C-alpha cells in the first residue's frame, strides 16, 4: 500500500502549554528548508527507517521548554501514512526485540504484581511482539496499531489486535490494568490527547508505561545536532521534565522513571550504524560478516532512552 504525500503542512502551537512562541532548536535538514506541500519521503516513517539526521525544523517552546517539529503534516495525514506503512526489515530483528521486551516486562510485573489474566493494551504494537510476550506471561494482552500490514502480521500469529489509533478507537472506559507505549509517543501530533485517551481506558489506579528518547540525556547533549534520533518521523522530543509535565496535566502521577536500553543483533546494529555513518558502518558490517557475529545479541544502553511508569489519578472531587 502506498500512502499519498501530505498536502497541508501547518505550524502548530505547543502541545504542552498552548503557547505559540518558540525559538528554532535544530534547523531543517530536508534540502535545508522547511518542507513544502507534497514533499516528503514517507518511507522515513517506517520503524526501521535509516533516516537519521533528516528532519524538518525542530523548535523549543519559550514558555515551557517542550521541543517539537513544526511545520508538519496534519494529524489525519500522519495517521494515513502510518496506516500504509509496511516494514519487513522489522521482522528480521524480531529475536532482538523479544529479548528487549522480555527485559521490559519483568520490572513492570515486579511493580504491578502478577498478571492473573488482567488486561494489558500495547499502543503502537506494530507486529505484536510485546503483545505476544505479555500473553505468554499470563496477561490478557491486546495491541492497537494503525499499520494494516503490521496488524495482519500480528493476527496471523493469533494475537489480539485493534486496528487504528488509541485516540479514535472505541475502547471501553476503565478496561485495562496496564497500557504500554514503547517508542510511540514521539510519533504522535497530540501527545497530551494520547495520554488522555490512555487515562480514559485505564482502570482506577491503572499504570501507564511510556518509553521514549531523553532529549536532555548526557549522550544527546554530547551529540548535539548529530544526535541520531532527530528524524522526520519524530514529531515530539521529551525530557524527563516535560514528560512529567505532560503526564501530570493528563492526571497521572509519576511513580518511576529511569533509563532503559535494548537488545540488538550485532548485524542489525551494524546496519543502523551504516545508515547513520556509511563510511564507518560499511567496514563494520563487513567485519561482522567476516567474524560471523551477525546473530549475536548485544545490549545497547547509551542512557538516552528512558521509561516512565505513571499511575492514573482519580479526577473526581474529594467528598466534603
Describe the structure.
The chain is an alpha/beta fold. The chain has a single domain (88-312), classed as Vaccinia Virus protein VP39 (Rossmann fold), CATH 3.40.50. Helix content is 32%, strand content 24%. It is built from 10 helices and 15 strands. The chain has helices at 75-84, 88-92, 94-112, 129-136, 148-156, 191-201, 218-223, 240-249, 266-276, 278-290; strands spanning 9-10, 22-26, 58-61, 67-69, 72-73, 119-123, 140-145, 160-163, 176-182, 202-213, 236-237, 252-259, 262-265, 297-300, 305-312. The protein has a 7-stranded mixed beta sheet with strand order 8-7-6-9-10-15-12, with helices on both faces. Helix 5 links the parallel strand 7 (140-145) and strand 8 (160-163). The longest helix has 19 residues, at 94-112. Mean pLDDT is 86; it is low at 32-40.
Amino acid at each position: 500500500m502506498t500512502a499519498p504525500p501530505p498536502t497541508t503542512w501547518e505550524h502548530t502551537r505547543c502541545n504542552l502549554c498552548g503557547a505559540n512562541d518558540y525559538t528554532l532548536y535544530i534547523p531543517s535538514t530536508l534540502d535545508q528548508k522547511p518542507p513544502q506541500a507534497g514533499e516528503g519521503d514517507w518511507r522515513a516513517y517506517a520503524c526501521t527507517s535509516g533516516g537519521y539526521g533528516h528532519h524538518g525544523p525542530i523548535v523549543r517552546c519559550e514558555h515551557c521548554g517542550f521541543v517539537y517539529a513544526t511545520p508538519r503534516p496534519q494529524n489525519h495525514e500522519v495517521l494515513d501514512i502510518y496506516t500504509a506503512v509496511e516494514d519487513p526489515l522489522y521482522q528480521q530483528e524480531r529475536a532482538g526485540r523479544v529479548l528487549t521486551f522480555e527485559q521490559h516486562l519483568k520490572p513492570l510485573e515486579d511493580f504491578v504484581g502478577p498478571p492473573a489474566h488482567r488486561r494489558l493494551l500495547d499502543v503502537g504494537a506494530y507486529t505484536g511482539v510485546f503483545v505476544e510476550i505479555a500473553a505468554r506471561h499470563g496477561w490478557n494482552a491486546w495491541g492497537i496499531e494503525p499499520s494494516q500490514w503490521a496488524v495482519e502480521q500480528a493476527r496471523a500469529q493469533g494475537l489480539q489486535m485493534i486496528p487504528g489509533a488509541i485516540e479514535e478507537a472505541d475502547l471501553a472506559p476503565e478496561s485495562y490494568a496496564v497500557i504500554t507505549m514503547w517508542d510511540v509517543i514521539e510519533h504522535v501530533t497530540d501527545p497530551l490527547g494520547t495520554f488522555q485517551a490512555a487515562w480514559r481506558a485505564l482502570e482506577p489506579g491503572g499504570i501507564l508505561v511510556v518509553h521514549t528518547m531523553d532529549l536532555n540525556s548526557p549522550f544527546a547533549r554530547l551529540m548535539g545536532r548529530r544526535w541520531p534520533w532527530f528524524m522526520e518521523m519524530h514529531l515530539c522530543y521529551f525530557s524527563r521534565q516535560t514528560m512529567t509535565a505532560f503526564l501530570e496535566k493528563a492526571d497521572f502521577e509519576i511513580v518511576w522513571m529511569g533509563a532503559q536500553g535494548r537488545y540488538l543483533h550485532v548485524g542489525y546494529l551494524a546496519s543502523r550504524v551504516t545508515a547513520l555513518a556509511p563510511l564507518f558502518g560499511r567496514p563494520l558490517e563487513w567485519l561482522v560478516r567476516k567474524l560471523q557475529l551477525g546473530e549475536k545479541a548485544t545490549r545497547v544502553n547509551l542512557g538516552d532512552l528512558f521509561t516512565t511508569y505513571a499511575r492514573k489519578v482519580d479526577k473526581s472531587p474529594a467528598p466534603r
